[in-house]
Amino acid sequence: MASYVVLLVIQGLFWSIALAADQSLLQDFCVSDPRSQELPSGLACKDPNQVRPEDFFFSGLNVAGEITNPVGSRVTPVTSAQVPGLNSLGISLARIDYAPWGINPPHTHPRASEILTVLEGTLEIGFITSNPDNRQITKVLQKGDAFVFPVGLIHYQRNVGSTSAAALAAFSSQNPGVVSIAKAVFGAAPDIASDILVKSFQVDNSVINFMQSKFKIN
Fold this sequence. Notes:
The protein is an alpha+beta fold.
């Protein structure tokens, strides 16, 4: 009986090591083939002989994004959707531009941690820990400062200066995903039933109707 238990333990350890090893690439790169079907780990690989320098290239992060929305920020993503060579590498980044007093509203990245570096200006940033504490951890960042947002936690940034600001965010996923809290709750399609939101937010139905009208997809 003891030898059987030992055998099971050894087999379990072997499979754990094998599964862990399978997470690493078995080739130099896996440039995504846009014609393939998306898999949990990304798109299928393009024929290596058809890979070109442009598959690993992105230009324009030196240019401030045009801000036209009411929140006062613009995100320029550089994920596997923009750079096929990022496929399966587990990294990506984005440039965020902020108008004076503009915000990047509370949101989460369900598949990545983030490290944000301020390029220009002054940003007030923060994230909120999970239930039951819901502690807000916040700090004011200056040019050259960096801050980490743990995976899945709600976080935000606000430009607290009278001039434009910019930041560069790096992610631990080729496709970090983003869930904007207000838009997800009040702009869901189809709508979340208003009585659910009334009870959740402890407000009148008229308030819910107003908030949903603000986030309707045109």
